[in-house]
Amino acid sequence: MRHDHLTSAKQLSRADIESVLDRAAEIDADPAAFGDRHRDAVLGLCFYEPSTRTKMSFETAIKRLGGDAVDMGTVESSSVTKGESLADTARVVEGYADALVLRHPSEGAAKMVSEFVDVPLLNAGDGAGHHPTQTLLDLYTIRENAGLDDLTIGIMGDLKYGRTVHSLAYALTNFDADQHFVSPESLKLPRSVRYDLHDSGANVREHTDLDAVLSSLDVLYVTRIQRERFPDENEYRAVAGEYGIDLETLESARDDLTVMHPLPRVDEIAPEVDGTDYATYFEQAHNGVPVRMALLDQLLEADR
Fold first, then answer.
1. Long-range contacts (CB closer than 8 Å, 24 or more residues apart) made by 16-22
2. CATH superfamily of 132-285
3. 64, 103, 104, 292: which is the annotated catalytic residue?
4. Is residue 84's pLDDT more than 80?
5. Of 52, 73, 234, 287, which has the fewest Cβ atoms less than 10 A away?
6. 53 is catalytic
7. 141 a catalytic residue
8. Is the dihedral of CA 183, 102, 113, 167 positive or negative?
9. What does the pLDDT look like over 14-55, one tens digit per residue?
10. 23, 131, 261, 292: which one is catalytic?
11. Is 82 a catalytic residue?
12. 226 pLDDT tier (thresholds 50, 70, 90)
């Protein structure tokens, strides 16, 4: 990696992405070979929002590399409740760790904190902004199942507030990928993201109906309608449950379609899909460990 910090998928070139994914494949093939790579390395976890997969997979990743993690705990149990600023908290935890992972509800928080710390900082989600490490494991999953070039991908659900969507869309501009975005009008991609994608030359199409594009897709990336991001509960209720898939929905899909989801899901993928060959979302979650191991390995290696 040529970056000290990873705050946005927009930083990543194709070479960066392939370097991490290739290292993740090596780890997947022989995890034991990496078990002592970063003995005594400490990863600082600063999560200002709830997390299951991201937090646990980062903790698992550093431990499988021979290191350990320190966790600031919940916001309620930390000095944040005493009025400590985000920048001060990060500078304090930096003194205990060799790298930091930050999740925060404010868009741009990771970029701001990166200006204050000298150890590598990884953005684990900043509001409705970016989630670049999720994108790397998404790309690893796509590469393993469908390849990353000559790819037709549909991304469906909350495209307005979905940080996983924004990061994935930016990263896919490095590859030969047709991107189809499916959402209600009120949850379309933000104008700034659409502009950036078009400016990069990406092949982007927007739809309100999945049926219009499903039969052509190699990958369908489904996202949750994020209740916690809506400023108005009535706005959420107007679209909740509107976009989902079940076995009937998938009747027109290709047999080799890969269905993904960053999780957690609510009702957007019916449990009956779990037992089909389409379902890849639990594999996708498990891929968080080798991919985050690969990323930490490269960043800690470069920081020596």
1. 17/136, 17/139, 17/171, 17/174, 19/298, 20/136, 20/291, 20/294, 20/295, 20/298, 21/136, 21/139, 21/140, 21/143, 21/291, 21/294
2. Aspartate/ornithine carbamoyltransferase (3.40.50.1370)
3. 103
4. yes
5. 234
6. yes
7. no
8. negative
9. 999 999 999 999 999 999 999 999 999 999 999 999 999 999
10. 131
11. yes
12. low
For residue 104, give both structure tokens. Answer: 């925060």
Fold entry, domain 9-131+288-302: Rossmann fold (3.40.50)
Q: How do residues 266-287 score in pLDDT, each as one tens digit? A: 889 999 999 999 999 999 999 9
Give the domain ranges of the chain: 9-131+288-302, 132-285
Instruction: Name the active-site residue from 37, 53, 91, 254.
Output: 53
Contacts of 25 (CB under 8 A, 6+ apart): 140, 290
Q: Which of 54, 141, 164, 280 is catalytic?
A: 54
pTM of the model: 0.93
Task: Tell me how many degrees the CA angle 284-294-25 measures, rounded to the nearest 5.
Answer: 60
3 pLDDT higher than 60: no
Active site residue 160: no
